[in-house]
Every structure is written in C-alpha cells, then in structure tokens.
Amino acid sequence: MRIIQTRDYNELSKESYKVIADTLEKNESASINTTTGASYDGTFELLVEAINNDKISIENSIFTNLDEYVSSRDASFSVYTYMHKNFYDLIKTHPKYIGLIDGSVADVQTEIDRYNEVLKRYPRDLQIVGLGVNAHLAANEPGTSFDSRLFLANSDDSTIQSTMGYHQLTPEEAPTQMITMGLADIMEGKHILVASSGVRKAEAVKATLEGPINEDCPASILRAHPNVTFIMDDAAASLLEKDYK
Fold it and tell me: Could you tell me the pTM of the whole model?
C-alpha cells in the first residue's frame, strides 16, 4: 500500500487528481470506477479544469460509479445528480461510456443484474473509493462480508447522518438504502485509490491502517490488495501511531 499524507484538503485533492491523470495518460482507454462526496469534490474540480484545458483526454475512457441511493434520479443527493452537476455537465468532452446505477427502478434485482453485466464488460483499471466515518467502503457497512457482491444495502445511522450533513437534508428526506458494489467487486480493481480528509475520519483511518483486518472494519480489506494508493490529510491522520510523512 502506498500511503500519502498531505498537509490539507487542497493538497489531498491534487494528489488524488494525479493518480487519475496518470491512469488516463498511461491508458487512454482506461476503465475508471469512481465515487462521490466531500473527499473528492476538489478532485473533480481539478479534473474538469484539466479536461477543458486539454491537459488530459477522456474520449476513449470508461467511467462507471460505485453505488446509488434508492431514490428518484433527480434527487438533490443522488449519485446521478452529483456526477452531472460536478462533472459530466461541466466538461467539453465525455467518456466513451458512462455507467451509472439507477436507484429509481421498481425492480432492484433487475437493475443489479444489468449493472453486474456492466462491471463484467469493463474491468476497472482504477477503482476510486471514499472512506466512511465508520470505515465503510461504498455502502458496505461494518459487518458486511468481504465476499459481498453488488447488492441492496441498508445504511447505518452514522452514514445517514453524514449524508444529511453533506447534502443538508432533514431526517425525513435522507435516503436509507443504496445499490452498491460489494467489497469483492471493489477488490477486483487493478489499482484502488482512497482519499480521506478531516478529523471526523481519523478513527476510520486508524482502524483501516493500523487495526485488525476483519469485517468490523470493511476498509481494512484494502491492506490485502497489492496496489492501493491511500491519501489522507494531517487531520485524518491525527490518531495514527506511525508517521507516514
């Protein structure tokens, strides 16, 4: 595992961007599965700027996503809305293929089957994940099997609270379920990028990097992968016993 500790969020975003840009520079047809949320807001800003200024090319690439809330597609908090608002609607050129899960469907199993075919068709060169406050990856909450595959997940209270805070939702508005890639799906990525920022992630970072590898800490499985880049800022690293700078 390659561990990068940055001074602050801005530096973290630059390091995350470098990983994505390097992937695309080495392989213009790269398949990149990404995530959403505060840890990557700055990274998407840098990607948009680079694409629109012809610093990187994505026309032959594949972009898919980790998960999606069970909700209407146009909900303010949906992954569909985030990806369009923060990326697809802002760039002058687009990937060859864009794959998004549809959480608005009546038949969830049919959607899971459809998206499983997408994942099989486009093996991930770069798998991007965020780290939840309880060390979840995607919507794989503590206790989820390391063998999990694309499934309908119920969100833990801490995850719901984080969603409410990030999207400024009331308890009544907040989604409670997601269709999510499983941990086994995530581990199939050739290279996994993780970014974690802020003191609220410090306990999860410590458990992921220095705690036991078990299903109580879903992200701990990353230590069993041969090619992970784990980026954290000083605040997120504040509880670690080892100095990674």
Answer: 0.94
